[in-house]
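Reagents: none. Just compute today. Pyruvate dehydrogenase (Acetyl-transferring) E1 component subunit alpha.
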Amino acid sequence: MSISLEQMKWMYATMVKIRYYEETMVTAYAEGKSPVFNIGAGPVPGEMHLAAGQEPAAVGICAHLRKEDTVTAPHRPHHHAIAKGVDLKRMTAEIFGKQSGLGKGKGGHMHLFDPEVKFSCGGIVAAGIPHAVGAALAAKMKKKDWVAVAFVGEGAANSGAFHESLNLAAVWKLPLIVVIEDNAYGISVPKKVSTAVASNVERAKGYGIPGFSVRDNDPREMYQISEQAVRHARNGEGPVLIEIETYRYLGHFQGDPELYREKNELNKLHEKDPVIRLKSLLESEGVVASDIAQLEAQVRKEVDEAYDFARKSEYPTIEEALLDVFE
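Predicted 3D structure written out:
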C-alpha cells in the first residue's frame, strides 16, 4: 500500500510533535534536579522515560486507527499518546501533577489515561497487554470492528503476561495487535544477551498468528505493514504481532548515565534519524520547504501551548488530591 501525501504529512507533523515534546520535556524535567540528581525535585518529579527516536512505531500504526480503537502503552508512553490523539494540554498537566491533568494529577507520566480516545498506560512491564486483550474481547462480544493495540518493549516479550495474552488472543481469535518496540536494550541489558530468539516474530509462529518485522526504524515500512495488520484484525481474522527495530536517543530514564552504550552508537543512530528521513521523502514528493516549515511551526506551537498550560495550572488541594482515593 502506498502512502497518500496527506497521510505522509500527518505522519511527519506528528513525528515532529513527538520529538519536540520529548526534547522540551528533557529541559522541564531537569529543572531543580542538579547539581546532585534528585528524582523527587523540580516541577516534574519521579522517573521519566522518553521516546525520542521511536516515533515510527507509534505513528505508523496510529495512522490506521479510529477513535474507537484501543491503545495501551508501557512506561515510555508519550509517542503513543500523541499519535493516538490524547489531549496534549491535559496530558502535560498530568505529568506535572496538576489538577487539570487527565487523572487530576494522581497518575503522572507512567499512568496516563484518556477514555475519550481509548488510551491507557499500564506503566509496569507488559501490564498493558492483558488490558488490550480485554478491549479486543469486548469489541468481539459487541460485534464491533474495533481493534486493540498493545505497545510493549522487547524486554516485555520475555514476560508471562506477553505469552499468556498472545495465547488467549489466538485461541479466541481476538482483534489484537501487539507492537514490540525493539530498541535493543531492556533498561541496560542488550537484547542479544537476554532473549533466546533474534526476532520475536518467531514467537508469533508458536501461537499460530502472523508476525511482521520492520527493520531499521523505517516509518514508511511501519505504515505499510501496520495497514495489513489492522485490516487483518479488523476483518475478524485474529491477532497479529509486529516487531519494529527502533532506537531511543535518550537513556532508559532521564539521569541514566548510559555506560552500556557502545562507542559512537548514538552518532550512528542519528545518521538514520526517522524524522529527517520522512522529511526527505516529503521533499522528494514535491512538498516545498515553506509548507514543511509551516507544518513544523504549527505542531511546535501546540507543544509550547501545552507546556504553558501545564505550568500555569494549579496543583490539587489536599481535599482534591484525596477525592476519589478512599471512596
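The two ends are 51 Å apart (CA to CA).
Action item: order primers for follow-up constructs.
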